[in-house]
Amino acid sequence: MANTAQARKRARQAVKQNAHNSSQRSTLRTAIKAVRKAIEAGDKAAASQVFQASVSIIDRIADKKIVHKNKASRHKSRLAAALKALA
Questions:
Q1: What is the pTM of this model?
Q2: Disordered: where is this region (predicted)?
């Protein structure tokens, strides 16, 4: 366990930050699933709108460095390819 006041405080901060980052990662996964679900439904117009909203979420989370920018780019690329294949 942490021995100094500074170490105890950092441990408290780490718990709080971990909870926040976990929530953000969950939001990312939910956005990706929403696009996949819209693509499976077959409605390209609706899927396109959901995709645009999800790209915004993905970029925002990558900018905060909760996920690596290359991972975010990979997700966006694969979702865009799936959307394009829907046509």
A1: 0.86
A2: 1-28
